[in-house]
Amino acid sequence: MEALSLLEKKIIHLLELISKLKEENNRLKAESAHLVEKNADLSQRVTDLTEKMSVTENAMVEHDKDLDELSQEKALTKMVVDDLIKSIDSFVDKEKQQ
């Protein structure tokens, strides 16, 4: 009879353990589902930010091209103005000599 009582206690203990493990398993499944959802959200944010970064980089490249163009135009304008001033100075010098 004592063996039967001991077996009954072990079965009760195992049933309690199974119940606790099921609860833990359900909690972990819920946590896993939450983390999967959070991971998907974060992946989407990374994708969105990567796209924004790409757009920003392209805009910066275009801006740099515009600045390079303006610098070249400035240098060309300076050369033309310098040549014009030299021509005017030369013309004025010729007029003085005559």
How would the blueprint of this fold be written?
Elements: H1 2-97
Count of separate DSSP helical elements = 1
Strand content: under 5%
What class would the helix/strand composition place it in? Answer: mainly alpha
**Structurally, how many domains make up the residues?**
1
Strand element count: 0
Strand and helix order: H
Q: Quote the distance from N terminus to C terminus.
A: 142 Å
Fraction of residues in H or I helices: over 70%
Major β-sheet, in short?
none
Based on CA inertia axes, which overall geometry fits? rod-shaped
Please mark out the parts with pLDDT under 50 across 5 or more consecutive residues, or reply none.
none
Q: What Rg, in angstroms, do the CA atoms define? A: 42 Å
Mean pLDDT: 94
Description:
The longest helix is centred in the middle third of the chain and has 96 residues, at 2-97. This protein is mostly helical and 98 residues long. It contains 1 helix and no strands. The protein has one domain (1-71). 98% of the residues lie in helices and 0% in strands. It starts with a helix and ends with a helix.
Brief descriptors of the model:
mainly alpha; 98 residues; 1 helix
What's the short story on this structure?
This protein is mostly helical and 98 residues long. The chain is built from one helix and no strands.
